[in-house]
Amino acid sequence: MTLFGTLRMIGVGSVVAQESGGAESAPDLQGMLMHHLLDGTELEFQILGRGFTIDLARFAMPPIHLGPLTIDLSPTKHIVFVVLAALLCLAVFVPMGRAVRGRYQGRAPSGLANAMEAMILYFRDEVVRRNIGHGADAYTGYILTLFFFILAMNLFGIIPFGSTPTGNFMVTGALALVTLLVVEITGLRTLGFKGYMKTIFYAPPGLHPVGQAIMLVILTPVEFLGKLTKPFALMIRLFANMLAGHTLVLSLLGMIFMFAAIGPAKWGVAGASLAMVWGIMILEVFVAFLQAYIFAMLTAVFIGLIRHAH
User: Cα dihedral sign for 270, 271, 277, 278?
Assistant: First the structure.
């Protein structure tokens, strides 16, 4: 998303027409919001001031039918940026890992590798080990992958002509589903089948058998829903925060055209709007890091909770 590209798309032509005495046409602010926030089959970008559009519908794939389930693997705008985020992580960390094992083996790395090593050690010591406990190092790779992958997707929404896949609840839902599987499989492996089933069917010891039966009836649905609400909260938190930030930015930009007909005062509205947008864009960078960190940290917390459910 770029400020000036957005301004041009949502109605600069309409404002010019109004000022020059031409036919007035109100900018489609709702269409602009939906175009930028929702998924689609078009990629728009500029090279040297010339606009280009890639129609992803030309690369549509036939759906795969598995009984009642239909899987559509056709590329969309958000899917493209999900793949780009994965490729970016690979392009950064694969050469860096090879360099650490080769050129920097036995000594501290320098430059970007040194900064990344400090961040990785922080996650290992303060996020993974602190929340998971014994045997936590086996989960460090997964937690770090979550953090950097989500961070890359978050930041893609800030660059010009980019899009934020994490503003799509299907993307955050897939991430939450993977986390749910990791957490539950971890609990099954750590506690064994009998111990794992106690995290769902729990009867407080020491109660009369009738009391235990009553507590089983009450607590079993609560415990089962608790397993689902934790990843659901991860999905909604990341989706809502990323979508809300971009909605606010685009809504503030739309104020320029809503007040375009108020005379000279419109330049004050435009200046205030752009100032607020730049401030929120800076805040969005912080939010991109924060939400990636929260998702990774809470994943570590959930893994630690089920490993120590006893």
Answer: positive
